[in-house]
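Hi X.,

You mentioned you wanted examples for the new student's onboarding notes, showing what a folding record looks like when two proteins sit in one file. Here is a clean example. The first protein comes first, with its sequence line followed by its C-alpha cells.
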Amino acid sequence: MAKITGVVFKEGGKVYYFAPGKDRYKEGMGVIVETSRGVEYATVVIPFAEVEDSKLVSPLKPIMRIASAKDKEIHRKNLEKKDEALKIVAEKIEKHNLDMKLIDCEFTFDGAKAVFYYSAPQRVDFRELVKELSQVFKMRIELRQVGIRDEIKMIGGLAPCGRECCCASCMPEFKKVSIKMAKNQGLSLNPGKISGLCGRLMCCLSYENDYYAEACKKMPKIGSEVTTPDGKGTVVNVNMLKMEVRVRIDDKEKDIFTYHDFPVSALKFKTPHRSEKEEKDEEVPADLKEILD
C-alpha cells in the first residue's frame, strides 16, 4: 500500500495522486506540485489515504509545498487573465476566418505557457494564428482540439434533469455508455430523451446499470407468455425496481381480459438468454447512431 494525497487542478476535474510531503494537508488547501507541464497550483481533495500499488503509476511525484500567500495571488491573477485572453483570441480567430469554436483557456502557474481549447468540425491550420498569439501574449501558445463531450465538461450547463451536467460537476472522468444501458432500464429510445447537452448518450445511464443488468436477467420479456397463479397470460409491463410484472390474462370463454400485477418470483417463464454476438449484432435505430460515441 502506498501513501498518497489526491489533488485536482480545476473544480470537478480528475483526481491526481502525489506522494505526501512532510506537511499535513487539509481538504481545500492549495498546494504546489510538479507535473509534466511544469510547476502547477492544485487543490487538495484527499488529504491522506493508502492505495494499492497496482492502482498507481510509479513513481509518485512529491508535493513540493503548501501554497503560500504569494502562490495564491499568482494563481488568482492567472484566473483573472482568462476572460481577457479569450476575448483577444476570439478576435484573432475571426480575423483569420478560421472555422473553430474557442472554449476555454489555461495559464501555467509559472506563466510560461497558455493553453487554448477549441472544437472544430475538421482539422484547422492555425500556424499563423499561433505566431500572432505568441507575439501578443509573449509566451508559448498551445491550441488543443477537444471533442463535444469535453466541450460541455469545460463550459458546463443544466442537464435535462435540471441539475448541472454530471461531467462538469461530479464526474472526473467520462464513463462508457451504450444503447444497451438504456434498454436495460426500459427507457424510450428517443434521442431527445436519452442524450445530454453534448448530443451524446447521457452519462447517468451508467450509474445504476449493474443493478438493471442483473434485474433484466430475472425478468420476462414484454410480450412473452408466462404462467401465473391465475393462469397463463402475456407480459405487458415490467417494474425492475419493485421486481413486479404486469400480466394480461385472457378469459376466452367470457371474451374478456384482465390485468394483474405479480411479483416475478410468483411467475413461471422461460428466460431468453442471448449470446454476446446476438446482442452486438442487434440493430440500432438510424436516428440513434448519431448520438453514439
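Then the second protein repeats the pattern, sequence line and then C-alpha cells:
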Amino acid sequence: MEMELQTAFTPWASLGGGILIGLSAVMVMGLFGRIAGISGITKGFLGAVLPTPGTPGDRDWRLAFGAGLITAPLATILVGGTVPQNVPSNLLGMAIAGLLVGLGTALGSGCTSGHGVCGLARLSRRSFAAVVTFMAAGFVTVFVLRHVLGVA
C-alpha cells in the first residue's frame, strides 16, 4: 500500500520564522555573548529551579527566552491566528524520542539550533559534523518509520 504524505507549502511563514530565528540568535550573541542553542538555554534556566552554576542575570534571560517559546504560539492563537502543528498521539514514542534527542544533545555538546543556526554561521567544523550527523540520522529515521515500518 502506497502512503501519500502531504505537507503544507508555507514559504512566507517559513521565511518569516527563519528571519525571527536568525534575529534571535544574533540578539542572544550580541546582548549576552552566548549561543542561542535551546539545549543550553534549557540547561541554564533549569538553574532557576535546580542549583547550578551561573549568575541570576544569566538565568533571567534564559527564562525569558523559554517563556517566549511557550507564549508565542498562545499569543498567535489569541490574535486570531492558528498554529498548524501536528502532534503525534503516541505518548510513549514521543517520550522515547525526547530522551534520544536529549542524549544526542548531551553527546554532541549542543542541539540543532546551537549547531545548525549558530555554529554553521560561525563556520564551525564541529558544528558542521554535528549537523551532518543529525540530519543523516533524521533521514534514516524517517525512511525506516515511513517506508519500512509503514508508520506515518
